[in-house]
Design goal:
homodimer; mainly alpha; about 55% helix; WH-like_DNA-bd_sf (chains A, B); two-stranded antiparallel sheet; transcription (chains A, B); transcription regulation (chains A, B); Helix-turn-helix domain-containing protein (chains A, B); DNA-binding; 5 helices
Chain lengths: ~120, ~120
DNA sequence: TATAGCTATTTCCCAAAGGAAAGTGAAATA
DNA sequence: TATTTCACTTTCCTTTGGGAAATAGCTATA
């Protein structure tokens, strides 16, 4: 007879959630996807649309998002070479996550405010 | 006439998403919420149910989750003092995010496998 | 020709995240 | 009495994330 109650299995949920986190982790990736999604396609546009985002970080994150096939980098070989970014169709599959997080964030702010209106 | 195309506003989505990330960021928080949610209530149970989670990190994360009113720490003052953890009702509001991320992770694995079956 | 703008890259640096391992104090068990 | 378990805490260390600022190569504009 064992004394120890065995723990409840939860890996069937924990593992896929962690797989997702490996792709969209970090402070900036989802924001960049949102920004490109609403129409910002140039490096500078994306950077200016997200306060606090520095060019170094944007550059690095764009590369990672490219590798995960969420964002496409397009080089236009016109007279002035132009580089622009757009979402890959695969990025659309993130929409449910983004909306769930948007809704939660809005509701959370409301809750915080109701509990303590002084916190802006 | 301005030459510069102004960037598209996306802060109405970016900001709440970042507010959410501030609460559930990091590698472990969602996993811990999932584990407690399926019934693991003791420190050691939670730790054992999540491979790779060390006691130091679990301890720290539990405190942060308590502060955000997602998890409740319960001290039972019986003959042996027992400490257990359970979800606050507020943690249930994270369910849509967790399910969206679980679904995405499962689908992502499938996609990776279809593209390159060698990567387990 | 000089200056400004775009799209980054590079260097340097600091703080936070997180892992390994040992320790702690209280209670339970042998 | 000695050992084990539980619930952490502490220490030490490495890795990662990310900010500031300078620079680079190209084109456009004055």
């Amino acid at each position: 007879m064992s004394k120890k109650k065995p723990y409840c299995e939860c890996l069937n949920t924990v593992k896929p959630v962690r797989d997702t986190l490996e792709v969209i982790n970090g402070k900036w990736k989802l924001s960049i996807i949102i920004s490109v999604g609403v129409g910002n396609s140039r490096f500078t546009e994306i950077q200016e649309s997200i306060p606090g985002l520095t060019p170094k970080v944007l550059s690095k994150e764009l590369k990672e998002l490219e590798q995960h096939q969420l964002i496409k980098r397009i080089i236009t070989n016109d007279y002035p070479v132009k580089i622009s970014y757009c979402l890959e169709p695969y990025a659309d599959t993130l929409t449910p996550i983004i909306y769930a997080m948007k809704d939660w964030g809005l509701n959370h702010k409301k809750k915080i405010f109701q509990e303590n209106p002084s916190e802006i």
